[in-house]
Amino acid sequence: MSNTIAQKKGFGATLWDYLTTVDHKKIAIMYLIGGGFFFILGGLEALAIRWQLIVPENDFVSAGFYNEILTMHGTTMIFLAAMPLIFALMNAVLPLQIGARDVAFPFLNSLGFWLFLFGGILLNCSWFLGGAPDAGWTAYAPLSTTSPGHGVDFYILGLQISGAGTLMGGINFLVTVINMRAPGMTYMRMPLFTWASFVTSALILFAFPALTVGLFLLMFDRLFGSVFFDANYGGNSVIWEHLFWIFGHPEVYILILPAFGVFSDVFSTFAKKRLFGYTAMVFATVLIGFLGFMVWAHHMFTVGLGPAANSIFAVATMAIAVPTGIKIFNWLFTLWGGSIRINSAMLWALGFIPSFTIGGMTGVMLAAAAADYQFHDTYFVVAHFHYVIVGGVVFGIFSGLHYWWPKMFGKILDEKLGKITFWTFFVGFHLTFFIQHFLGLMGMPRRYWVYLEDQGLDLGNSISTVGAFFMGVGALVFLYNVIYTSVKGEKVGGDPWDGRTLEWSIPSPPPHYNFAQAPLVRGLDPLWIEKTEGRKGMTPAEPLDDIHMPNNTILPFVMSVGLFIAGFGFIYQAEYTGGFIAMFVGMGITLGAMFTRSVKDDLGHHIHKEDLDKGAGM
Amino acid sequence: MSSHEDVLNPKVMPEEPEKATLEGKNKFLGFWFFLGGETVLFASLFGTYLALKGSTMDDNTSQNLFELPLVFIMTMLLLTSSLTSVYAMYHMKNNDFGKMQLWLGITVVLGLAFLGCELYEFYHYIHHYEFTFRSSAFGSAFYTLVGFHGGHVLFGLLWIVTLMVRNAKRGLNLYNAPKFYIASLYWHFIDVVWVFIFTVVYLMGVI
Amino acid sequence: MAENTNSVNNELDYHKKKKKEEMKQQVITFALMIVFTIIAFTMVEADLDKLFVIPILFILAIVQVAFQLYYFMHMSHKGHEMPSLMMYGGAAVAFLTVLTLLVLVWW
């Protein structure tokens, strides 16, 4: 088979290239676009929520519609914005950081992306088909089992499909890290972002099956007449809560750990220092992942599990503050005495430390089970989880995007616009959520669509809404920055930040085989080691030879389309014959594509060494 | 193209053909990890079942429904099919393709027999006892747990048959050896789950 | 060259023997599993005391599963460190899940 590197071509060919690609760098870009789209959507929903709450007893939206945007904001932001944006960063740099030419399962990688996208589209189709899900992003039964219309069905099927994609992504990155590292890249030489992604992938592997089962039970109850959560038939809705949080709590660590990894890399690059306490950082990451599985019931303190269970989960939750504290101090010590450069990426990282620390502290407060009876379901909780998820994950994503943008696209995002984004977003963020702590303490319950005036809640809510619009402006400036940079930005070389890790040793954007020759890794921060010894780049670990690469394929796209159709089929099978047919047609398409994948050999192709860019990957 | 052929069809088959190529190694590891995830999936189903075990709405309790002789036969069928797939892998490592296909064929037959028994069992419960997916939370949990396992058996059978038919003419090589190997891992895992099902659902159900 | 083929053949013979040895072990394992299953079923049929039977059923099941994993699925072989790690990880989460749904659902 011949060399099929993408040449200059028309729109149709480019589209086809992206539909069929198995290249992790292109998949990263697709994750970025998909996740970015849903981030904007979720942001608009957030603005609608805040606009409704700007004055007491507002009637900007109806109560029912408020429930829908509130549910969709949470669901979209967690599953369709944060997860894919994290996956975008992981796809873009993880293979580069370990000196790999590709991920372990390029096919599954592409399938994971398409499943996420079609799951997300399916979920959002609900807007146009009788109303979005309205049972909250946690979809507690029996609220979710009795919710009228098909909103919750879209939630179930949409998340089921995109969740399957996430699970595949997790397995893919686990195996990539274990099997695909360059010579000399031992586990304890991996950059922190790679480590964090590795642990995150393990969490995905163990957490998502619980969600899968929970969603199946809910689907059977709603669509096929089973009675898991129906007390009339001996069902029990607490099962849903457990299954949801057995998944749901690890999920927040799935989101935050890669962000921790980003900050670690950013701090050490821009402080020009080896990460302080690397071993402790790795240990803390693993420990957070481990403890992350033993704390889920702290979301359920008020369910009535009893004092023994509540105490156990309270103590386990507080214990997580220890490894997290280790991390915060190690970042501070990395900065201490470093030759610090402050740019946009660094600003996000610096802004993260105080923001996240506040979120962590309120976390410990919430972990105290007795006090939680007071905080539960108030805006205090809303403030807490936005401090960790926005102040941690979103800041991490922004930081990572600024840091790796030149690696992904060959251009540095405009610094001035970057700084404007940071300051508007940062100020807006604290304006929005800091006041919500106090609103919560004053007793304002979450998820209510109105509040009465003159109860001390008016001013706080107005301030919060103003802040939200600041965040919106910040996001818009970032969007403008992306367009501005891609039009006006200047091309930069492979190593614009004077980087330390392997991804900076190859051109930007990297050739599709990443490394012409696998690099020889001689320690932590391998590129920095070579630089300190006066070399320009990495020493190759192998002679120049033909490179084996996987073939493009449309099958992942077809499989996902099949499940998308089947998703509609499942939702409507009870009412329409068409739904019944769609269910079988969709599953048939997916199984047919799987069958094709199984019987058709896919041996990949070779790039001949004569065709490699000279000097690439050196 | 020729280089692929050479690499995938070596003169002497390596000791562990399923792990001789990087793709094979990746598949091997990735599939094991998938099984780690499946463990949690089935644990969630088992947990749900155990929580709802007592939620019977009528006389259709586990004590009244389950009949151990049939379960014993099903257990023997699946257990034996596990051994036959071990034999298949043994012959794969000896590069004896014909015998491998034979033993896989026996595995498939045993798996089909198991599925037949399970279908009969469900049919029996539904028509004889009117014990259905919808009649009680216990019913929902029972059919979901055992049905998920049955679904895994069905998928495993389709998978193994596809592999057997696809490779019937060309024999074993380093491209399909990992596929056969992980299909057999999947089959063993199905048996692992069944061990817990017959213990937790059936045996503890009639005590 | 001849010597080379010879040593390859010797090695093949050695491996063949080893595999045969292992196959024998696996048949023994299988026999044990059958025996365990029969014990489990007879114990239940014999209507023994509940508190006595249930722990033994569990132990038998776990031993059977260990046999399946370590002998039939070769987890005892070299190169299974990561699979073991992930299986034990999965088992730990599985244990917590089942335990929770057993004791923290009804009260």
From TrEMBL, chain A:
Entry's transmembrane regions: 28-49, 69-94, 106-129, 154-180, 192-220, 243-263, 275-296, 308-333, 345-371, 383-405, 417-439, 459-483, 554-572, 578-596
Highest taxon listed in the record's lineage: Bacteria
Membrane topology qualifier: Multi-pass membrane protein
Gene Ontology terms, MF aspect: cytochrome-c oxidase activity; heme binding; metal ion binding
GO cellular component: plasma membrane
Cellular localization per UniProt: Cell membrane
UniProt entry keywords in alphabetical sequence: Cell membrane, Copper, Electron transport, Heme, Iron, Membrane, Metal-binding, Respiratory chain, Translocase, Transmembrane, Transmembrane helix, Transport
Principal location: membrane
E.C. number: 7.1.1.9
A GO BP entry: aerobic respiration
Catalysis performed (reactions): 4 Fe(II)-[cytochrome c] + O2 + 8 H(+)(in) = 4 Fe(III)-[cytochrome c] + 2 H2O + 4 H(+)(out)
Pfam families: COX1
Pathway the protein acts in: Energy metabolism; oxidative phosphorylation
Domain Cytochrome oxidase subunit I profile per the UniProt entry, residue ranges: 10-522
Family label: Belongs to the heme-copper respiratory oxidase family.
Function: Cytochrome c oxidase is the component of the respiratory chain that catalyzes the reduction of oxygen to water. Subunits 1-3 form the functional core of the enzyme complex. CO I is the catalytic subunit of the enzyme. Electrons originating in cytochrome c are transferred via the copper A center of subunit 2 and heme A of subunit 1 to the bimetallic center formed by heme A3 and copper B.
UniProt-recorded name of the protein: Cytochrome c oxidase subunit 1
Organism name: Aquibacillus koreensis
TrEMBL record, chain B:
Compartments where found: Cell membrane
GO biological process: aerobic electron transport chain
InterPro entries per the UniProt record, alphabetical: Cyt_c/ubiquinol_Oxase_su3 (IPR024791), Cyt_c_oxidase-like_su3 (IPR000298), Cyt_c_oxidase_su3-like_sf (IPR035973), Cyt_c_oxidase_su3_a-hlx (IPR013833), Ubiquinol_oxase_su3_dom (IPR033946)
Record keywords, A-Z: Cell membrane, Membrane, Transmembrane, Transmembrane helix
Gene Ontology MF terms: cytochrome-c oxidase activity
Sequence intervals crossing the membrane: 29-50, 70-90, 102-122, 142-165, 185-205
Any one of the GO CC terms: plasma membrane
Membrane topology field: Multi-pass membrane protein
Major location (coarse): membrane
KW rRNA-binding (keyword) present: no
Domain Heme-copper oxidase subunit III family profile: 29-206
Cross-referenced PANTHER family: CYTOCHROME C OXIDASE SUBUNIT 3, CYTOCHROME C OXIDASE SUBUNIT III
Family from the record: Belongs to the cytochrome c oxidase subunit 3 family.
Protein name: Cytochrome (Ubi)quinol oxidase subunit III
From TrEMBL, chain C:
Gene Ontology CC, one term: plasma membrane
InterPro entries: Cyt_c_oxidase_su4_bacillaceae, Cyt_c_oxidase_su4_prok
Residues annotated as transmembrane: 27-46, 52-73, 85-106
Main location: membrane
Membrane topology of the entry: Multi-pass membrane protein
Subcellular locations according to the entry: Cell membrane
Keywords assigned by UniProt, alphabetized: Cell membrane, Membrane, Transmembrane, Transmembrane helix
One Pfam short name: COX4_pro
Protein name: Cytochrome c oxidase subunit IVB
Organism: Aquibacillus koreensis
